[in-house]
Write a structure and sequence with these properties.
By secondary structure, the protein is mainly beta. The N terminus is likely disordered. It contains one helix and 30 strands.
């Protein structure tokens, strides 16, 4: 069933050290995403026969509400190179029958470090097949962990979105503007009486994006397809800019009831301007065939990628195998494995989303995942338990990491391993849900790096642990807690030659929500309860124990 969340009333959330209720989190620290228990209205349409990712699902116990919640890993697979761990919001698939749902909300809050939070959300459905949303978020901190205002930060985000769904097709579009203002406060301690000019360490990043998608939802049409295109622009305070246009096509054709031909095609055209002007393009065609039965799924094909870069004189085409197998020996159990490769597209936008402390004129090069072999097992058992274990062995060229630059240790450079980098990843996850009154999910990841032409995988962890818990004490009182741990971070000061093992990062956060009335709720967040000014990136200590509290009005 295709469903659109037209509006929502948030009654449970958890914020990170710089975030409350889904507001912006400063990059370069452990980031706790928003957890939400959502009351929602939905637009329902006739089901479509989607086969892009058709696979036999794990079958839970009948008659019970199925709750999925996912931990998003610190991505070592650099196709999504975010290193800071984050936990996604739990989602409840049960249809909400409540008719009197409060759709829109306004939130105001404040806390130590001179924080201010303001957020507003408005959603509507002017017609049965049309829905829209508008959201504004602002979070700022007047002071930070180093030299007060010299480590302040502010972020503003505006989102406008709409969906139009007919019985045979779906159109969705959205606009987004994001502005981040912060300071490079990772400078060396200054002599007494020396004042750092804030204007020389200030950074402002403005991003604007527009997305448009069209998808066939008519099950009677033989060819199933979707097309999505997006245009994104980025500009910073140091005359750096990037314009990026990407279009993606997914299509499938059933040959028999069990056999499908699938096609994925991508085209990305981008221009980056700083000291030089780079025209960087990437084109991908990925035809595959998929065979699906009750207890067995296999897909095989070829991934062909062409990349060009005018300034770096790159124009090459690579082909990689695609093979995935999924076996269900018994209901509720999946055993899977795969072999694949790709050109991982890196952009200034993706790099800044991972490490905002980058200096100007950093080198941006795509990374080649020459081969990845993986296997694992996942499933559900009675009593509300779910689990997954996975092992992956991946080879890269131009595997990247971040380290303080030689010219200015308060700014970061991107270091690429031009040889073959081998990464072993072992992960395990277990979750438990008790009648939606208590949810917990624990995941651990172990990474081993074998680099070729660089000293170390700077600032990449060798062990991460994420533990999320949500407890409904009553119909009005909700408590969430999350714990993150990162170990094995190494950094080097290229000016002095000193290599530093950064201390283990342990971050514990609590959030309490209380429904005062039908329209009002109050929240209090306690972040970084251990009070450690840990460094996710060298010379950038994070805020210690901090809090934010406020009220939410829904209407």
């Amino acid at each position: 069933m295709i469903r659109i969340q037209a509006s929502r009333f948030v009654i449970l959330s958890l914020a990170s050290a710089f975030v409350s209720n889904g507001a912006f989190a400063q990059r370069g620290e452990i980031e706790s995403q928003t957890y939400e228990i959502v009351k929602e209205k939905s637009i329902e349409f006739a089901p479509a026969n989607r086969v892009f990712d058709k696979v036999q699902p794990i079958k839970g116990e009948s008659g019970k509400t199925k709750v999925n919640y996912e931990i998003i890993d610190p991505k070592i697979n650099i196709s999504a190179p975010k290193l800071t761990p984050a936990v996604g919001a739990s989602t409840d698939e049960k249809k909400n029958e409540e008719k009197d749902v409060l759709n829109n909300y306004i939130k105001l809050g404040g806390g130590n470090y001179g924080r201010f939070l303001g957020e507003a959300f408005v959603g509507g459905r002017p017609a049965e097949d049309l829905a829209f949303t508008a959201q504004l978020k602002h979070l700022s901190a007047a002071n930070g962990p180093v030299d007060n205002k010299n480590s302040a930060n502010a972020a503003t985000n505006i989102k406008l979105g709409g969906k139009y769904i007919r019985s045979t097709y779906k159109v969705d579009a959205n606009l987004e503007y994001d502005r981040k203002n912060y300071y490079f406060y990772g400078y060396q301690p200054q002599p007494e009486g020396v004042i750092v000019d804030r204007d020389t360490i200030r950074q402002t990043v403005n991003q604007f994006g527009v997305n448009l998608g069209f998808e066939n939802t008519d099950a009677s049409v033989l060819v199933d397809y979707s097309v999505k295109t997006s245009l994104n622009s980025l500009r910073d305070r140091y005359s750096g800019s990037e314009l990026d246009w990407g279009t993606k096509l997914n299509a499938s054709i059933p040959i028999t009831e069990e056999f499908y031909a699938l096609l994925e095609a991508d085209a990305f055209l981008s221009q980056r301007v700083d000291q030089f002007t780079y025209h960087r393009n990437l084109f991908r065609v990925k035809p595959t065939f998929k065979y699906v039965t009750e207890g067995f799924t296999v897909s095989a094909g070829l991934n062909v990628v062409n990349e060009t870069d005018s300034e770096l004189n790159i124009n090459k085409t690579k082909a990689f195998p695609v093979l995935n197998v999924d076996v269900t020996p018994v209901s509720g159990l999946h055993i899977y494995g795969g072999w694949n490769g790709d050109i991982v597209r890196n952009t200034l936008r993706s790099m800044l989303s991972e490490n905002q402390w980058l200096g100007p004129n950093v080198l941006i090069v795509n990374s080649e995942k020459t081969s990845e072999i993986s296997g694992g097992v996942k499933g559900e058992i009675s009593g509300g338990f779910n689990y997954e274990g996975k092992v992956a062995y991946t080879s890269y060229r131009n595997f990247y990491n971040f380290n303080n630059s030689l010219a200015d240790t308060s700014r970061f450079s991107i270091i690429y391993d031009t040889g073959k980098t081998k990464v072993l990843t072992i992960s395990a996850q277990v979750g438990y849900n008790y009648n939606d009154a208590f949810k917990t999910s624990l995941k651990a990841n172990f990474f081993d790096y074998a680099v070729a032409n660089v000293e170390e995988a700077w600032h990449r962890p060798d062990l991460t642990i994420n533990w999320f818990n949500a407890l409904s004490i009553s119909k009005k009182l909700f408590v969430t807690a999350d714990f993150y741990m990162l170990r094995g971070l190494k950094a080097k000061n290229f000016q002095s030659g000193v290599v530093t093992k950064l201390p283990v990062i342990a971050d514990l956060n609590f959030k309490i929500d209380y429904l005062l009335t039908k329209n009002f709720s109050a929240f209090v967040s306690l972040n970084n309860v251990f009070g450690k000014q840990y460094q996710r990136y060298q010379y950038y200590p994070q805020q210690g124990l901090n809090f934010i509290g406020g009220l939410s009005f829904s209407f």
